[in-house]
Amino acid sequence: MWLDVNKLEAFEVSFCSDRPLTVKAKISVQVKDNQYSNTIILVTAEAYQEIVSLDYISRPIQDVDQEEEGEGNCEVLNFGDCHVDCQHQESFTLINHSSDQVVRFEWPPGGSHVSFSPQVGHLHAGCSKEVSVIFWSSQLVTLKSKSKKCKFCRVEFQQPLEQVADWDDRQRTVQWQSPSKVVQTDPEPSCSVVDGSQWELDLLISAVCDYAKFSCSNNTIHFKDTMLFQTRVHQLQIVNEGSVKVDYAWQVLMDSSSSSGSRDGDSLPAARPSSALLRVATLLTVNPELPAFTVEPSAGTIIPGATQDFSVRFSPVELAQFQGKLICSIPNLQDGDLAPCIPVFGRSLLPHCHFDFEDSDYISGHRRRVRSPVDLNSRVLEFEAVGFTTPSKSVLNPTSRTYSFKWRCEDDSASPFRCLSPCGSILPGKRTQVCFEYIADQPDTVESFWTFVIETVSLSVPFLLVGTTREPLVYFQRPHLDLGELLVGRQAEQTVALVNGELEPLSFSVLPESLLSEDQLSGLIVHPMSGTVAPKDRLPLFVSLTPSLEAHVSFRVTLKVKCRSEPLTLTVRADCFAMSATVQIEQPDGGLKDVSPNHQDILDFGKVGISEQSTFKLLVSNCARFSLEVNFELMGPGDLLQHLEAKPQTATIEVGKQLQSLLFFSPQNICNLQDVSLNVKVKFGPTFTFTVKGGAVAPSLEFSFNKFNFGRCFLSCPGMQPPSQTLVISNKGRRDVRVPLTFYPSEARRYHEKLSFILNSCVTRQVEVLGQGTEMKLEVEDPRQKKVKLGSLTLGQKVTKQVVLVNRSSLDLSFTLTLNANTPLDPKDLSVRPAGELKLKSAGGSCQVEIQFSPRRHVPAFSAELQAEFAGFFHPLLTVQGCCLGVEVLLDPNHLSFGAVVQRCQASRRIIMVNIGDIGARFHWKTENFPAELSITPAKGYICPGMEVPFEVTFAPVELSNDRRYEGLSCSLEGSPPPVLLTVTGSCIAASTTQEVVNFFCPVRSSQTQSLSVINPTNQRCCIRPLIEGEQWRAAPIVTFEPHQNKAVDITYRPLTMTTEGKKHLGSVFLSFPEGRGMLYSLHGTADPPKAEDNISIELPAKSLQSQLLTVSNWLSKQQRFHVLMETLKPEKPDATVSLRGLKYMDVPAHANRDYNLSFSAYKEGHYSTKVTFSNEKTGEYLFYLVTFKVTPPGILSTITLETTVRRTVSASIQVENPLTTPTCLSTECKCPDISAPPQHTVPGLSQGVLSFEYHPLHEGESTARLSLLSNDLGYFHHDLILRALPPPPEKTVHFSAPLGCSHAVPVKFTNYSRFKTEYSCKVRKLMPVGFQLGSEARVEVCFEPHQLGEVKAQLRLYSGIGGEYIFPLHGVCLPPKAQGPFSIRAGRSINIPFKNVFLQTTSFSFQVDNPCFAVKGVESIGPKKTQNISVCFEAPPGGGSGPCFGKLTVTSQRSEGSGKVTTWVFYLKGHRPESS
């Protein structure tokens, strides 16, 4: 802000809050460019909530804005425009926001125009009350924010608030005072106003009460002559000139004097039938009974000062002169003012023809963009085509004669429109269709000029045909559909809408080839594939995908739409993944074994002692892209599972991580693991199954010794055989365990160890082991002789070396000298002396060793180590080196055996020649010495040092021979080495054999083994390989025969397919012996149908679902699909109450097992036998199970808890499903009397029924019951009920009010809910028990006769053992005695006034009169509750005055009965003077 010198400026600070709170803030006023001038203003604001508020006041928005701009905190109630002498009502709500204060309110009493209901009343804490405000005036009046003050104050009651009923002046009490009914306002409860708690609240009331005033622009309306079925419009205005709104409603009354006319004049046609125009109107779908005149709008409201325009339409549908009246109904008019009543006239003319289509504003609306001239009187036919269409219009003949017509095109060039009905005739009152074929090649607007001609009447009508063509508006709601990440094998579905924006239906179809992915490996499912989209509607398309492999897939769905040149495309993408995992078993040697999910592995713990523990470790690796949830589930008998534990049982494996799981076997007693399995289940992934085996044994052990001393031993070295001793542990002779104890001293010192054996984790046995380690020192005396070089020798040379060995150990040493060379050496070429065992004394014993090298053949360079062998340990002493140069060739092998070869056949074998010498040489086989049956390749060549040359030897015998042997087959070498010799053996046998037939019989996929008695005809041991033809038979791969042995050869027949009648499986087995003898057996097999895989018996309660797993095995090496057939064997008749469900087909991989889930349920108990057959429809092979279900009586189906208060009803329902095709009737049974259910309930066939029942308790407490439903077809349905009856809410308090000495009787009403006639006892008054019928309303009259002033509280208790207990609080108020009288007494006479002692004791009373003309006489003491007469006499005073005399009798009692004041009764007396004569 800007402040001038000596200028004062103000600014506004606003505070607003929606809840009560206190706020403190600071406002800083800073002078610009003066940092020393900073004024701080402290602002404190508090928002509070009034105890009472006025809410839910309805008022216009403009009144709300005016209220916000006005000052003060007042509520505004606006009645708006009101009619004179009419009642208008508005309402609002008074709310008491306090939690413990009772407020009394009082509105001004009903005065002029405004009244409140209730006008006075109480508002309890936290309660609200609706107040109605009524406005009524018989005069013109305007209220503008007239204030009505409501007075509020806080009040207190003497009794507790819960005992004080709500009250306002609307509450009435109806009393019957014979013979009429008296309605009295209930008195306000006694209360006291809290001092200083009064306040007022203003309500501003606005209203405008005035008559409606208006002006109309027309008094009469005349329409020009109008052709039939055409419309003329006349505009009419009404102006609201008053101060209140004008409500109007138009009504058209046609004059019955309207007459039919002709088109040539006012005369009526004579020859035309009267129904002709009615028939024409029917063709035009126009109701001829509708009035020709209409008004729009027909009803509404005109605000003050506004003008309303009305359109009066004249639309004739018959030939006539029309007249009528437009009557406007306007309420709230002043006496003498009339509503508008406008006469309206019109006449219709008959045209020669009528074109039944809407007029276009193509020319009049200046929408034409073509500059060519056009007749303004041309009728326009405007066609909007979607794609290519053929629009049609109709022409109507409204005349009474037939005429011909024709269409003529006026275009200079070819028209895009072609009239399909260029000419024709129209019968009277009939119509004809005129079709134009519109063929457009561009989407722009096209015009064509045509003329409609009727030559008989010289009529021509110009027409302008306008057409546009466009693509249909049809599209996908989303052009792209992303299915996101999908799990392989799980279906995902999304919906995309196909939207039709046209006014006509459009058909579509999806191209099936577009549902394949780009790699042609995945396919989408779209439903529906074809259909029609309604006009201006959308059709959902369901797109689903079930991925079969892990990859990113993309689809481009193509959809063809009718009338659309290009198809629609929808792009669908998905990222498919699999929950891959691997499982490995850690072997005892530390290796890992991979586990396949399709193979069942075995985890064998072996024999484990009681209280011992054996463990298997499983490694589960996550190969997927998301975290895996793995569950380890042990299955089997419960008594065996207690010994097994898998840790963890459930785990989550992160991506790329590995989980280590342990399976523990800790037997606590003797057991044998059978039928126990471990399933490693990966959520949404594979399942790995393991068969768990093992057993537990109990230990009972004895030790062969408890202490052993090994003595002094050499230090342990690698390869040395250490000293050992066996500890035998015996288990009572059942089994001995030998524990080898080995002494491995690693240091030269004494050893003392204790071995502990823990038995069953609780008993420990110890064995002591002692020994001493000593170092072995055997070495060469001269260290320079540790390496002995013999040099390079030639054949025939010899060299000798001598070495001295010394034993420097502390123990005697026995050893043997050995040479360990890197290449094999002949002992004759290199030798060591002395040979045999040498013994050297400890501490310096020695011996001389001689080494001699004299090669007789080629010896390559070698290095040999002289070692001393001691106890399996080779101690190195020295190294020997040398060589001998030469040529050396070897054959591998040098003896070749061909065995038995069939005559005129040949056999080949392979041998290798190796040159292990240092010099190469040429070789040449002397093939001229070979027999004709033998040949070898290659016959000659050159072999280098270290080279291998392969040779192929072929044996082709021609003549039969048991044994052929060819020795001395030589190969000469260059350089005069000795030749290489080869020996070949073989035999030639004949092919003739003997034959024998063996028959086999067994069920398919089972086996039969028969033994063939076979004799070895030879005198040599031989191994025979049986040759079998036929895939159904198996035998041992090799059978070994001793010479002349008669041995049984087992042949096993295991057919995989059944044989048909008259056909068998054929095969043979051939046994060939070395001597050329053979045995051929023919095999015939018959495979019978299979036997049942298993007979299973299951017991289950009725109305429960039982699942049974049936193992299906695939015996083939390829996947099989089995068709599942479920048959009910017993009972023979089909029963709809028995359900046997399962998959219709199942696939089993090659050589694998799969579990088939069979679900069974029955409604009634009994025995049911079923047969489940798994058959291969292609091969006809099958297997089957026999399953027997024993159904026991049903258990409890559900438990329903019902809770309510006593005498309040709560309902529940039970659903019952009827699987039968016919309705079934259920009878209900419940022994609890508080449960009400229909005795019978019918459930339609193949549907689910709902049985509703009610719980209506009469006594407090908790109980249980059973509700049973019985059907002859479905059996029993048991449901347990838990019933809780809470204490009843308090009954309504009965209030009494009576003066002292009087009584007040009030009938107390209650309802008897018992089902029987019930007697209730009353404890307030000794009443006789009264019986009440079920549901009847009973009443008990309670009389309040107080005997002391003040308030009295009591309870009326009505009790019945059957109907329960009713407790009514009683609240009575005793008021001071009221004055009675006047009692009239004639002069000289007396009267008796009855007076009752209302006290409970005998009481003394005093009687006084205030007028001496009256005299009283009464008893001084009156018994309790007794009535005595008080005698009062009257004597006229002297003086002869006129008029009656008045007096007052006062009866006083000194007994206060707790009030603390003297109680008095007043009787008014009236004495009549004697009449003067």
TrEMBL record:
Its main location: other. It holds the Pfam family HYDIN_VesB_CFA65-like_Ig. Residues 891-986 form the HYDIN/VesB/CFA65-like Ig-like domain. Keywords: Cell projection, Cilium, Cytoplasm. GO terms for cellular component: axoneme. One of its GO terms (biological process) is axonemal central apparatus assembly. It is found in: Cell projection, Cilium; Cytoplasm. This is (Atlantic silverside) hypothetical protein. It comes from Menidia menidia.
